[in-house]
Amino acid sequence: MNIAKTAPWTVAGRLLQVAGRQPDRHTILQENVATLLTQFKPEFVDSLQALPDEKLMDGLNGSYANGPLHMALKLSRDIRQKPYTDEQVMARLERLDAELKTASAEVIAGSPGFPCKFYVCGSLLKGRFGGESDIDLLCAAGADWIKAQPWDAGHRDVSFQYIDMPEQEDRDKFVQAFAPVREVSAADIQKPGFLASLYAESVEHKGYTLDEGHLKAQSPTIVREVETPPEAARHIMWSLPMV
So where are the chain's domains? Predict the structure, then answer.
């Protein structure tokens, strides 16, 4: 996919310009918007590309009839309600990194003798982390620890799906349903800049480098995969146990 010639990338850039965003300060936002646009019907994106600038924002309203509702809501949020700079994304990663370190340490301390396991999934691994994104983790922890959790308290921006399945095979099958997913150790999580390093790896997979907090294309080819909700995630609520 040629980054300079694709309709999603071009339309994303024009949307940011119409909204008054400086391209060099919003490289992550432009890529995230381009990725969201790939989730809609190609003819809809082509129709946006054909519109003059003064009608582009109004044309965006057609997203609700031409793609997944949750993607249309994210598109409107990122362009209209809560656009974000590259600096804000990196600051959020830093804040959530500290929150994750505290939360994972609490899980370990509350599950003595249990081989706790952590799995990162969600927008971070997809290379689509933004200024409003959360960190989604699956966590295999001790049954007593899981049952004792006050589900309405704690780390709201670091969302855990606790897994209490006695059979390893069942746990593995459940985890893989969230692909892409990556198992990480408690020691990994405690490393400085852990989340930023995962994000850098995820955008490298797409074809970018993260250079001083800004995205730069490694080559003309950028990978954007069509996203589908994980089957296992359709009927769960984060920070509740999966048993």
Answer: 7-83, 87-242
